[in-house]
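Quick one: Response regulatory domain-containing protein from Nesterenkonia sandarakina, structure tokens please.
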Amino acid sequence: MLEELRSAAWLREVGVVDVVLITALRDVEHVRTAMAMGALHYLIKPFPLRQLRDQLERYAAARKRMAALSTVPQNDVDALFGMMRPMASRSMAKGLTLATAERVAEVLRSTDADVSAVEVSETTGIARVTARRYLEHLCAEGRAELTLRYGQAARPEHRYRWVP
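--- reply ---
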């Protein structure tokens, strides 16, 4: 494991390389070393494939967001660093729970089309207002994006899409 970390450090010297470690090593010294050498994440085997997928999606969203910026205010820096943390370690707004946030996120991930809060509500069984609060939370984290669909009604329809 230490040799792999040294290789990752060498790669960083050559250029910008981001590392997510996947290992069976569980001792705290290896975790500390990985953190000190700049690993973005440390996944301990065995783990559910969803956990790796979520981490890679957060990474891709953070890289995409950084590519769109030339300078950043502190709130953008906080959001970028927050995107790389697992949802469980993030602070949730009052009244929101991790389990429901993951359920709403899964609905967004499972479709290529954008969806409304009503559609998420029908799929998950939660109230429309609750679905919208979770969707807005995911947008604030940079994990989802909001688009407006203008139609016949006076108000535009809010549509949400997962940010890959």
